[in-house]
Amino acid sequence: MTATRTILSPNHYNGWTKGPPRAVVIHSTRSTIASKTDAQELQSTITWFMSVNSQASAHWVISELERIRMVENKYPAWHAVEHSWEAYGIEITQPTIDRPYKEGHYQNLVAVCVPYVQAGIPVVHLPTLEYGDSRRGFVGHNETAQGRRDGKSDPGPQFDWAKFIGMLTAATEEDMALSDADYPQFHAMLVTLLNSTDPKYGNAAYAPIIAALRAKVAALETQAQAAGLKRGDTVKIEGTVT
User: Fold this and answer.
1) CB under 8 Å to 121, separation ≥6 — which residues?
2) Contact 90, 23 (CB under 8 A)
3) 103: helix, coil or strand?
4) Predicted local confidence at residue 173, as pLDDT
5) Nearest 5°: CA angle at 124, between 118 and 127?
6) How do residues 166-213 score in pLDDT, each as one tens digit?
7) Would you give the DSSP letter of residue 102?
8) What phi, psi does 24 have (nearest 5°)?
9) What's the start-to-end Cα distance of the chain, in Å?
10) Among 38, 150, 155, 194, which residue has the least CB neighbours within 10 Å?
């Protein structure tokens, strides 16, 4: 789903020079002004991110009614210090820690996160994120190493992780599930990757294939979990495998 508005901040790095992003960090805006409406909180955040003096930005700012694109995905935004180099950042409007998130917040958040899942980030709530570790998924700012170090509390106790993960799973599994029509394309991607003699698997030429494979594997893992399967289980596959 596209942005309701695009307002590009000047605050970002020039590229993912330390490797492709592997996670999404969820923030809340927290102006601390309880009297602000959701729309006012949104506008204050946009104004702040547009100022070079703020030294801050995010890929998206999400309100109950809007999805504001502020940094293109090809650039790291300035949202979580060292984690800015390895994760996308999304801000959700919440003036104070006790302000409940509305259904529209979750719907708009899910809408902008679907493309990240399609690019290979699994629908998983990470318990923590350490710089340079191997974890992939979605994490709260307060759960990152930088967030813990700096005393961050967002997105906070009002954010329902189970609801968000459930909604995102539902939004992506139909699109990502392997249908009969998917198998020829999936098989072709595997053959292309596995039969290549090029040792540089990090080459940009492989990026679309690897991203698609990661997304399909993540979808299969989600389907397996929903079916109550676990690693080591034996399953019967019906049909023709080529």
Assistant:
1) 21, 22, 23, 24, 136, 137, 138, 218
2) no
3) helix
4) 80
5) 145
6) 999 999 986 555 555 555 666 666 666 656 555 554 555 555 656 666
7) P
8) -125, 125
9) 35
10) 194
Residue 46: pLDDT above 70? yes
pLDDT tens digits along 152-162 = 999 999 999 99
The CA distance from 225 to 7, in Å, is 39
Domains annotated on the chain, with CATH: 5-175 (3.40.80.10), 179-226 (no CATH)
Please choose, from the candidates 80, 96, 86, the residue with its C-alpha nearest in 3D space to the C-alpha of residue 142: 80
The tokens 């790095």 sit on which residue? 13
Residue matched to tokens 């992506």 = 172
Residue 84 in contact with residue 14, Cβ under 8 Å? Answer: no
The answer to whether 41 and 31 have CB atoms below 8 angstroms apart is: yes
Q: Is 35 helix (H, G, I), strand (E, B) or coil?
A: coil
Q: 188 by DSSP, 3-state: which?
A: helix
Q: 161 near 185, Cβ under 8 Å?
A: no
